[in-house]
Amino acid sequence: MAGILYLCATPIGNLEDITFRVIKTLKEVDLIAAEDTRHSIKLLNHFQIKTKMTSYHEYNRVEKAKFLVRQILDGKNIALITDAGTPGISDPGEELVKQCYGAGIQVTALPGACALINALIISGQPTRRFCFEAFLPADKKERKNVLDQLENETRTIILYEAPHRLLKTLEELLEILGNRKMTLCRELTKKHESVFLSTIEEILEYHREHLPKGECVLIIQGKSFQELKAESQESFLKMSLSDHMDLYMQQGYSKKEAMKLVAKDRGVGKREIYQQLLDEK
Fold it and tell me: Is residue 274's pLDDT more than 60?
């Protein structure tokens, strides 16, 4: 009978944030797959966990996942842990989970600390709708594509960033997104936890003089629907009325339907569009 893969959340700073269930599971499984065994041994020693560990990281994620899957199919229960937080979120655990489902293996998650959720709920930003981009891509072209997509994102945006890249990222965000409201969270759950709620520009200026230590979580205000509507209307108003009508009529809309769509685009009534068209004649 096959074993089970347990995705175990570990503390992101304060060791007291680990759950009783995670400690119990880590003691009972046959093997722990850890992103960095040198880092995780400190956690295991603190809670007197003697279970054998093996490394599972970004550079061996595909081949090592095949090995772990075989172990589970042979009946071993395996726990997956990341350096800090919930495995599978912006780490190689995603590959192992995918392979486990492909092999018909049961996967279960033991909840706990998660940096993006911790940062979001203390950010002072809207929490009902949000998107998570983790670390921006290193490739310049891909990075620009992601930032361009985020320009019109209406949900609260969450990014991770390393301290030595923070200034560059803030400069890019200011250039592409504009001076949005933003919260910078640092050293979450630790003694020197800090939450800086301001604007991208002010946070950038502050950190030019005070370089941060520790990984940062950036919570950025999304663009409002009102802003999007105003920008859309502005772009349509730059078109002539006849060109705007032609845009829809070339798509197969009748004149009456096109007038209705044009009126909506321009934020006016259909009667006004009709009158303008008459005046143009």
Answer: no
Q: Which tokens go with 252? A: 């197969």
* pLDDT recorded at residue 280: 67
Q: How far, CA to CA in Å, does 4 sit from each of 68, 99, 225?
A: 11, 13, 45
- H runs (alpha helix) in 37-135: 37-46, 61-73, 93-102, 115-121
> Would you state the pLDDT for residue 275?
65
DSSP annotation of 29:
S
> pLDDT class for 153, splitting at 50, 70, 90?
very high
Residue 221: which of 185, 182, 186 has the closest Cα? 182
Which DSSP state fits 133?
A: E
**Domain range spanning residue 59?**
4-113
Residue ending a domain, among 204, 223, 242, is 223
For residues 231 and 249, membership in a common domain is answered with: yes
CA of 57: how far to CAs of 78, 80, 92, 132, in Å?
Answer: 15, 11, 6, 21
* pLDDT (0 to 100) of residue 277: 63
Q: What H or E segment, with its residue span, contains residue 208? A: helix 200-209
Give the pLDDT confidence of 248-257 residue by residue, as tens digits.
Answer: 778 877 777 7
Radius of gyration of the chain from Cα atoms?
26
DSSP 95: H
CATH number for the domain including 205? 3.30.950.10
Domain boundary residue, one of 113, 143, 175: 113
The mean per-residue pLDDT over the stretch 110-119 comes to 96
Check: CB of residue 56 under 8 Å from CB of residue 83: no
